[in-house]
């Protein structure tokens, strides 16, 4: 069941529809990415989003403003154990500055009551900085 919840959430993320995205998170959800990651730096944002509204704003507004076209996510593995789901993926896109983006990610989703409560995101931050800032 937890695997299906996360698969559904990925479809909602891709919609960039704020209401659909909000429905998959608990109100007190958190999303933690590596401090100083290129996306947070370029957007002047934080690497630790606290609360559903902050996460929804990022996924519905900021993400499509930064990753402007050709966004593709290739899932290499999805592993579920109870209320925890680990996703290994590669994301590619064209950035707002015209640069090509391709990076590998590992995301750990923690669920509560059938919704996402916490996401821990891991990526190659040095590679991200090279693609974003040249």
Automatic annotation (TrEMBL):
A Pfam family this chain is assigned to? SnoaL_2
Record domain SnoaL-like: where: 7-118
Regions annotated as coiled coil:
none
**SUPFAM superfamilies under this entry?**
NTF2-like
Name of this protein: Nuclear transport factor 2 family protein
Which organism does this record belong to?
Amycolatopsis iheyensis
